[in-house]
Amino acid sequence: MRTQEVLCPTDFSATAAHALNYAVEMANLYHVDIRLLHVVSPARSAHCYGIAVDTPATLEQQLAEFVETKMQSLQLQMQQGLAVGLKVKCIVRHGDASEEILAESADAGMIVIASHGSSGLVDFLKHHVSQDVVRLAKCPVLVVK
């Protein structure tokens, strides 16, 4: 852990925002960088991000712009809390959230993840990403409520 980064997945929910603070604390404690990860899931529709669109191409463009803006904002916020010399790296992946987080965690020293994120019937009916990550990750996982 002392030389590996802290991986912090986010879905931009309030709980995920709370987990960011713990990721910063862990990074400062171990003097390591942070990888801030957002996974754009194909199953998520535009309304989950609060975007109104006419065409799939418009959705893709607006979604990419929204995610980039949110990630830059979170990166700046987290960077302000980090010790001098440490960095926050932003990563955006596309696919199943659990699979992408686990793939990204292959060389991470620790994962800091929210216990639950965005809500809705679809999320209620499917598995919880944090549960999959805790069960399958090869590194320590800190779950934040």
Automatic annotation (TrEMBL):
Tell me which SUPFAM superfamilies the record gives: Adenine nucleotide alpha hydrolases-like
Query: Where, if anywhere, are coiled coils annotated?
Result: none
Gene3D superfamilies in alphabetical order:
3.40.50.12370
Q: Which InterPro entries match?
A: Universal_stress_UspA (IPR006015), UspA (IPR006016)
UspA domain: residues covered: 4-145
Pfam families to which the protein is assigned, alphabetical: Usp
- TM segments? none
Q: What is stated as this protein's family in its record? A: Belongs to the universal stress protein A family.
This protein's name: Universal stress protein
